[in-house]
Amino acid sequence: MSSEGSNSDSATSTGVAPGELQVVVSGAESAYEVRLLGELDMSTASELRERLIGLAGEGPAQVTVDLSQLAFVDSTGLSVLVAGLKQFRQEGGDMALRSPTPATRRVLEITGLTEVFAIS
Residue 49 sits in which domain range? Predict the structure, then answer.
């Protein structure tokens, strides 16, 4: 929740203020796209968590999370993505990741999550 300017260049390129996350859900029925814009970290992860829980509560769904405009992700953000994946699979659905930035892809590789998620 701090407003330090260290990540301002990457965050402003997404159109979202530094330290903020915008979650845009589109689609209907059993196929959704979740676009993440900004920073997914300890202070913003609860918004994504709530949205994913809401979608999973609607029954089996195929969800694609678009990471192309995600400027930053930390371990809390990764934890929310993994929890979302587990929740969708428990409901008979699935969750995939799409278009991670080079920095996000590197984090996914280092943590071994490229072996867990389908990534396109």
Answer: 8-119
Kindly report the three-state secondary structure assignment for every residue of 2-30. CCCCCCHHHHHCCCCCCCCEEEEEEEECC
Contact 74, 40 (CB under 8 A): yes
Asked if residue 114 is part of any domain, the answer here is yes
In a domain, 68, yes or no: yes
| Residue 88, phi then psi, degrees to nearest 5 | -65, -40
Q: How many CA atoms lie within 13 A of 70 on its CB side?
A: 30
**Element of type H or E holding 80:** helix 75-90
Indicate which CATH number applies to the domain containing 85.
3.30.750.24
Q: What is the pTM of this model?
A: 0.87
The number of angstroms, rounded, from the C-alpha of 70 to the middle of its chain's C-alpha atoms is 8
Tens-digit pLDDT profile for residues 58-83: 888 999 999 999 999 999 999 999 99
CA distance 37 to 58: 24
Residue 3 domain-assigned? no
Total number of domains in the chain: 1
Judge whether 2 lies within some domain: no
